[in-house]
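hey can u check if this looks right to u? its 467 residues, i copy pasted from the old doc so theres a chance i mangled smth
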Amino acid sequence: MTPLDRVLAYLQSRQETAVHELMGFLRIPTISTDAAHQQDMRTGAAWLCDRLARAGFDAARIEETPGGHPVVRACYRNRTAAPPRRRVVVYGHYDVQPVDPIGAWHYPPFSPQIVDGALYARGAADDKGQLYLQLLAAEAWLQATGDIPVDMEFLFEGEEEIGSPHLPAYLEAHVDDLQADAAVISDTPMYADDLPAICYGLRGLAALEVTVRGPQQDLHSGVYGGVVMNPAVVLAKLLGSLHDDQGRIRVPGFYDDVVPPDPFDWEVIANLPFSEGALKESLGVSKLSGEAGYSTLERMWLRPTLDINGIISGYTGPGEKTIIPAEASAKLSCRLVPNQDPRDIQRKIADYLQAQAPSGVTVSVQVSAGLAHSVRVPLSDPIMVAARRAVHDTFGVEPIFMRRGSSMAIIAQFQTLLRQTPLLMGFTGPHDNIHAPNEHFKLTDFHRGARTIAHLWHYYGQMVATP
């Protein structure tokens, strides 16, 4: 039996135990955006640190970030192996999204349930389940063979769902001990069921909140209606002015730095199996829309966007309360493409909104510190070659190469600061409801993911690193 065969047998023998352990991890409500869960975040970090230590990894520890949730670290080094050896950073996040609307969940979000072969819980797919399969694959190599074909640094953070605001400073302070050839991240989905994907590009992110203020307090609409400017009406007009009738963003200079996609991007989209009808059905909508002149996948992956994420104003309880609200606010976010700078986009949107403000109200804009630059990964890198072989061995098909419209704030830091190639290879299904009620992870995908990562270390370890 080869070393890889022993690793795969080890994973197979521990499938039931692995799921049971993951369910314990999922019971911890590690919601990073909610201060009420501060202690839960520490409990989650402690659980993960203890699990890394029990797996046999060195220096498992919790490290603080200034003002933020802690980072969990561990490492593996074969100090007797002849150099050079490949070295990787395994990255993931143990924080999860809020669970609202709670009434839409079929099962309590932090009471994991297995239904029809899928594990339901908040964080099952994003990202505790995928983080955990990375740990399992590395543990399997160590326990089954006494070695892992590559050296590893485990870096698990607790702030990805809020834009990783404190992790860049942490990376800057730990550049030396995080030196590696590649960063391996399982936090993306497959393209379709049984059709795994390697993601070679992500859009960037810029977010902000606009607030319109009018009278010093809510006013009786029967007494003052028609006399003072209504902040909710003003906000609605401002938001309605952000796009023209063709879906193009009207903010001056928004598209100035957009870099057109290259021919490979167009080829990928042209060759992908894709059905607009199936997408509409899965989303529960009768029509798809967006910027004119582009296909659906082009709009999802290759074009920048500006969206309204939420609007707050006035009375929203049961019955009526006839007022003119004192203020109205909206949260906005943009997905950005290569060469667009998030801070520049925030400034341009803020300038546009404030320039449109009518007299009688004030308009203020608060920019979010959680930013992300877009990412593009070279397909020729050895980690990408090894990943392609690993996927084929496990799934029996070639992986899809694809870009995604979502953002991961820290990935650009792996490229620019740490000078590592990020491998974005996840195993959840495209309809596993990440960030939504009834999030789940099919157990077959969970186990196949662990096996794929085990194959990855086998192939990547065979590729001699540059001394």
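The first strand starts at residue 58 and ends at 63.
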